[in-house]
Amino acid sequence: MLAVLVAAVLSAPSPQDTALDVPVYRNETFGIALPRPFDDWVFEPATSRGTTTVIFHPRDASLRDQLWGALVLTTFDRDVPLGQVADQRVLTSWQPTLGTSFMLLTRDSISVLGLPAIHVVMGGSIERAVLDVEEYLVARGGDLILLQFRYPRGLPRDSIAAGYQRMMEGLRILGGTTTGAAERAPPPPPGAVLRALAGSQWQATAYDALVRYDAARGRLDVSARMVARNDGFTAQDSVALAVSPPGAFDSVALAANRPTAARGAIARLRLTSPAGPQDEVSLAAYFHVSELRPAVRGAGALVEQTWLPLVQAPADSLGQPRRLAHPRFTLRFDLPDSLRAVAPGHLSTEVVAAGRRGMTWVLDDVAPWSVTFAIGPYRAQTRQTVRLTVRLWRATPDSLPPERADSLLALFARAWIVYERMFGPPLTTEIAIVESDAARASGSPGIVLVGPGLAVDPTVALRDLARHWWGGSILADGAGASFLLEGIPAWAALATRGLLEGDSVRQRLVREAEAEWRTAQEQRRDRPLVALDPYTAADRELLRAKSAAALEAVRRAVGESRFREAIRTLAIENRGGSATVDGLLGLLGGDGASILRPHLFGR
Q1: pLDDT tens-digit readout, 336-347
Q2: What domain range is 365 assigned to?
Q3: CA-based, 20 to 30 A from 253: which of 150, 223, 333, 394?
Q4: Phi, psi (5° rounding) for residue 61?
């Protein structure tokens, strides 16, 4: 409710009576300094109901020309719910203001002066003046700092943008850093996929994919039927689809229509009629994946993470994960009868006929960019406890001592009980433990990869098990989303080993994480957690180590009980949805947030 009120208050600043003809506007109360974009521009500040609005524009110019900007400063009684405020502004302020020509061009999570921020760009018209509007919403605890820049169409945009860039470079916020007004994390590869899906309003709500494995050619041929929903504010007349290399399209189609040829990693389908907000369309995509990675003993295939066709990028243009839906999944496999496929979820059918094996997996709680599956000469062993069903998929000979499997299964069963206490119940209670000799392979929610002969690093295995919650039952959104999806499982693995093996083990693992973090500092590789790229190996390892060390520091400061309650509440409240860093900081309280925030966003 408060977010709606603030969005309405900020929607349309009006010109004030008193102009300040000064090089820099300063607000000592908020600790803000903002230079003007050009020497002939002035500031017009006013305060009402605790909100300060500062309009800046050319001297003696009419605001009806739309060549002006605004700085808005207000305070919440809690940490700013940044994502909610940004969404409310778009829905309740800008979409009605910009009218039928409204278009949302960009919504990115970024860091401004080391503080969490959201960057929004929109287009449309106001009183027949066509323009683009750019906004930066910056949160500093409970303070909201909003910068708005207007670009009237028909005026030289480059020169106007240069002035606004001067303002961003000269912006100073008490409590923020003094270098780099907008620090942008590098986008994850492949960039072409992100560019093709930039600004997409579509969400995939269902997948039904048939995967045929050709062992002789080492290739997968996939036919995927999808349901996509328009989650935007405007009607759409086309849908862009993308697969990550080495995947490539063969053809695409609408519903039962005849397929049209497509090539490469990107395809676009023109709809027969526009799809309005919340309308759904049925699509079909036919594509292949080559250059497969063997799963075990040089045979089969291990397909990790993103391989299904996407209608919206899993990350925004700044590398931060997007808030995406949990679609319904059915994966069907057509394989040589000597091989089996292992995927997250549960195996509903398995049939062998005419030298081929058909398997159908139903997936309940994973996102389309995190589906890992393995194809190999696997045999399944099923173990069940009161809380958990474990399927152990082995490709090594039966001569392996049974005690090895019993020990591994006992580890996962004990850890599962710990994680249920930490995070609450997950959406599903089945996991697959899969043998693979692929180097540096990583599982996904519902699948934990172990080495040949069930060789396992307990810390890595328990971290991947925690991803059954973080990335499976719980997604993340906004600046710091990667910290939640990678950092919390990393910390949970250390904490769980301490509970199962003794606190001395926990202390040793924390010291190792702190040492890895110090090494990065000495090598000048250290950056705020929100700026680390989880798609590169070096940054991902640092993200895990630094997150674990930082969370452990917070736990020591606020106490075990309060810290665990905050983590558990965050998990339970966002089960089946998306958690945010802002939500975690609010649950930790002022003292805990004051310790974690500098590690997240820098000083």
Answers
A1: 999 999 988 888
A2: 186-290+305-377
A3: 333
A4: -90, 155
